[in-house]
Design goal:
Blueprint: H1 2-17, H2 28-37, H3 43-55, H4 61-66, H5 69-75, H6 82-100, H7 104-109, H8 112-120, H9 127-137, H10 147-155, H11 165-175, H12 180-196
Helix pairs in contact: 1-12, 2-3, 2-9, 5-6, 8-9, 10-12
Bound molecules: iron/sulfur cluster.
């Protein structure tokens, strides 16, 4: 049964890798900014960009709202696609001020069903970034799906790899208890497995969940 499978995979991943301590960030706003910066790049590059923002003391909603986009782009250069991401960050901060007076606590009070579509309407915020913000910055019980989730769970026979984002998300959210800490940890563990073991060319011999995997071709 799928519900049982998802729970068993979680337990095995947790036993193997332990708590991941996600999301690295000293404040919900830093987590939100990191969710945009991490698009299409490794986390080590995001850390460099965040360090630059901190050094210049502009990692606050008001300061990011006021900074010139060209200066912001220069500071976040290590994260790649810096002009695109600067525009996205400006749009996100603009949204935060328009809707919530620049206050994440106000934003957090909004119900998920209202907040999620609004956030998805912000320039450059797709479902994965949106849900990362909801879960890791605002502590809303939303399961984050990414390419690793699709790859691993298609190989485990839970869904096809081309399943639409929201469909796969629904499977997890229907079968798992609605828990911020569980969703937080589960997604982080999936990333750990996908990054190091269940790659495009997977290292099945080292995989802690191989007994649950249907993808015999990879054995
Ligand atoms: S057994 Fe192989 S294909 Fe299956 S989840 Fe593990 S690494 Fe991926």
């Amino acid at each position: 049964m799928r519900k049982d499978l998802l729970a068993r995979i979680y337990k095995r991943l947790f036993k193997t890798f332990g708590p991941r301590g996600w999301w690295p960030g000293q404040s919900p706003f830093e987590v939100m900014v990191g969710a945009v910066l991490t698009q299409n790049t490794a986390w080590t590059n995001v850390e460099k960009a965040i360090r630059n923002l901190k050094r210049e003391k502009i990692l606050t909603p008001a300061r990011l709202d006021n900074i010139k986009i060209s200066r912001l782009a220069r500071l976040i250069r290590p994260a790649g696609y810096f002009n695109v991401k600067a525009k996205r960050l400006k749009s996100l901060v603009g949204f935060l001020f328009e809707e919530y007076k620049g206050d994440l606590r106000r934003m957090r009070k909004e119900r998920i069903n209202t907040l999620r579509p609004k956030l998805l309407g912000v320039h450059g915020i797709g479902p994965e970034t949106c849900d990362s913000i909801l879960l890791y910055a605002l502590e809303k019980p939303v399961f984050v799906i990414d390419a690793y989730t699709k790859r691993i769970f298609s190989r485990c026979g839970v869904a096809k790899e081309d399943i639409p984002y929201e469909e796969l998300q629904s499977l997890f959210m229907e079968d798992l208890p609605k828990s911020v800490s569980l969703y937080n940890e589960y997604h982080a563990l999936i990333v750990q497995l996908g990054k190091d073991i269940c790659r495009k060319d997977p290292k099945c011999g080292l995989c802690c969940i191989r007994e649950f995997c249907k993808n015999k071709n990879f054995r």
